[in-house]
Amino acid sequence: MFALGLIINPLAGLGGSVALKGSDQVAEQALALGAEPKAQQRMAEALAHLVPHKAHIQVWTGSGAMGEELARSLGFEVEVLHRSAHPSSAEDTRALTRALSERRPNLILFAGGDGTARDLCAVVSPQQPVLGVPAGVKIHSGVYGLTPKASGIVAAQMVKGELVSVTDGEVRDIDEVAFRAGQVRAKYFGEMTVPEALRFVQAVKMGGRESEELVTDDIAAEVVEQMDPDWQYVMGSGSTVAAVMAELGLDNTLLGVDLIRDGQLLASDLTAAELLSRVQGVPTKLVITLIGGQGHLFGRGNQQLSPAVIRAIGRDNIVILASKSKLTALAHQAMVADTGDSQLDLELQGHYRIITGYRDAVLYPLANPEEAVC
Fold this sequence. Notes:
eleven-stranded mixed sheet, alpha/beta, 13 helices, Rossmann fold
């Protein structure tokens, strides 16, 4: 099942039609002037693209107008994670976002404006994919689809297991008090992980097809640039990870697991027991690729990465590398976690950011063996 977090700010966009230049702190005034809420309608336009797939979607949302009413009316399976007063407040948005972050949905789809984006950004997990449905008066943030339809199409691509690109979308908002006085003061509030339509523009040769050699070099350059000298890195097996080691000028165990830190090789071809002793209590990331054609991330050829080692490193510290060609060859089949620990396999499920080139990444799902087909 695809877990969809759904958040609607019922008051978003109220101030626009009555010339209030926004909705922050003026919702009651806007309603008194005859403004009609539009956020439900905007979200309905987006969800229309998910309705054909609703049998495979579990919606987690807030009560009433925050998402429950609309999702139930469209026939989705719904679980309410937060109950709000009427009308809901910014704190309700933040509370629902916290609850969703704990559940790790495949995507949080939210309808609102820049104020709503700020509320999510303040509390959401950095790794959590989110996508906005534009419903506010002002949309300065880079976390929204161009239209509700565009947001719905990207969400549907994720549900179907298609490749989608991922970017760090900036959250920006203006001072509405100053704006009403004729002054525009934009402010940066942070970034969130945002899926978008696939960009297949990385290293290519003639014919527009990926060159694995060029792409692997791009991936290696991106990984090395992101490495933090204060963290140690467990380097998994496979040729894509080997390219990262080559970029660093380090010897590599192609079919084994090595440990590096700050450009130095700490240990080679480690066993599961040796790895566990070295990662417990130490900030560590795991760099790994999947098996081409099969999609296995864990459980094939890397048994040194035991359930205990994976838990010690942590889900959020797994760095996955793969070319888009390798992912496309899976034909919408999800990556597989077959660690030998069924509970861990469940905990690892979800969409992951996969490095597919230099400054290029996609979101792709991981499932346990029983649910690996998207």
